[in-house]
Amino acid sequence: MSVRLLLVGGGRMGEALLGGMLAAGREPSELAVAEVSGARRTELADRYPGVQVVASPVAAEGVVLATKPDGIAAAVTASVQAGASRLLSVAAGITCAAMEAAAGGSTAVVRAMPNTPALVGAGVTAIAPGSTAGEEDLAWAEEILSAVGVVVRVKETQLDAVTGVSGSGPAYVFLVAEALSDAGVLAGLTRDLANTLAFQTLLGSSQLLVQSADGPAELRAAVTSPGGTTAAGTRELERAGVRSAFLEAVMAATERARELGSA
Ligand SMILES: NC(=O)C1=CN([C@@H]2O[C@H](COP(=O)(O)OP(=O)(O)OC[C@H]3O[C@@H](n4cnc5c(N)ncnc54)[C@H](O)[C@@H]3O)[C@@H](O)[C@H]2O)C=CC1
Ligand SMILES: O=C(O)[C@@H]1CCC=N1
């Protein structure tokens, strides 16, 4: 008997999607995970009772591909051989055309770029259709991914840039969190207190940003008193080239996604 949805690759991103879908109310019996690592299969089976955990693809109505980019072509072929007629890939760089070639038929392909805040239902995913994917296929992908956060539709040519901004973006934010906490310790606070202050500041600032009618420049101006502490701190960030560092980081990640797709 086929499952409704098979996840191929139960690593960090695959687990984020699986955990998010279950938290959003998906029945475990609808889901299966194909994972090549035996140790990982044991972990997943323990953590997600009721989800079928297998070593290679089983028959499924639809398949989410979450292996590393260099494993996607083989995973597409195995999934199609097992009977899948609809594929959704989250791999960085790998194009719909490459997956369609590996599928070798009329399989509908949707390419997506999610991010790990999907683990807590606060992800953002951009999706783009392959050449034979229609509205129903996009709606199917949206139904899966909207369980773990916001979903936006983009052109496939935009997906490498999306990878640079929001796919990799959580790592940049975590780096800021570490740095802000380290700075608190440098200024004499305990690590626990510095973590609480840094993490809650990131959370609160993000919530303010998405809920406010003002954009980031206005919100930053509201924190910055004339001749005050924030202006003094911001001057150092600008002097260190933080803004430029973010521009370069996103461009490097975007370029790397392109390279992964052409490897
Ligand atoms: N980690 C992240 O923040 C994000 C990752 N992605 C994409 O998600 C994909 C997975 O990335 P991660 O989860 O970080 O990597 P990972 O290495 O944690 O997970 C990959 C998993 O796939 C398994 N695997 C490999 N070949 C397989 C096969 N043929 N059949 C079944 N399982 C197989 C591996 O054993 C591993 O558990 C990548 O393509 C990446 O570009 C996309 C957005 C964000
Ligand atoms: O680092 C990577 O290649 C993956 C894709 C986006 C986030 N993590």
Task: Report on the architecture of this protein.
With 263 residues, the chain is of the alpha/beta class. It has 2 domains: 3-156, NAD(P)-binding Rossmann-like Domain (Rossmann fold), CATH 3.40.50; 169-262, ProC C-terminal domain-like (ProC C-terminal domain-like fold, Orthogonal Bundle), CATH 1.10.3730.10. The chain is built from 11 helices and 8 strands. The protein has helices at residues 12-23, 38-47, 72-81, 96-103, 135-145, 159-167, 169-186, 191-211, 216-223, 229-239, 242-262, and strands at residues 3-8, 31-34, 52-54, 60-65, 86-89, 108-113, 123-129, 149-153. An 8-stranded mixed beta sheet has the order 3-2-1-4-5-6-7-8, with helices on both faces. The model has no long low-confidence stretch (mean pLDDT 95). (2S)-3,4-dihydro-2H-pyrrole-2-carboxylic acid binds at residues 92, 163, 167-168. 1,4-dihydronicotinamide adenine dinucleotide is lined by residues 8-14, 34-37, 40, 66-69, 71, 74-75, 90-92, 113-116, 167. It comes from Solirubrobacter pauli. Keywords: Amino-acid biosynthesis, Cytoplasm, NADP, Oxidoreductase, Proline biosynthesis.
Query: Which regions are unreliable across 5 or more consecutive residues at pLDDT < 50?
Result: none
CATH topology of the largest domain: Rossmann fold
Note the overall shape: elongated
Q: Tell me, rounded to a whole number, the average pLDDT.
A: 95
The value of Rg in angstroms is 21 Å
Helix fraction by DSSP (H/I, runs of at least 4): 40-55%
For the largest sheet, list the strands in their spatial order.
3-2-1-4-5-6-7-8
Number of helices: 11
Q: What's the number of structural domains?
A: 2
What is the CATH C-level name of the largest domain?
Alpha Beta
User: What distance separates the N and C termini?
Assistant: 37 Å
Structural class assignment? alpha/beta
The CATH superfamily of the largest domain appears as: NAD(P)-binding Rossmann-like Domain
Q: Approximately what portion of the residues adopt beta-strand conformation? A: 15-25%
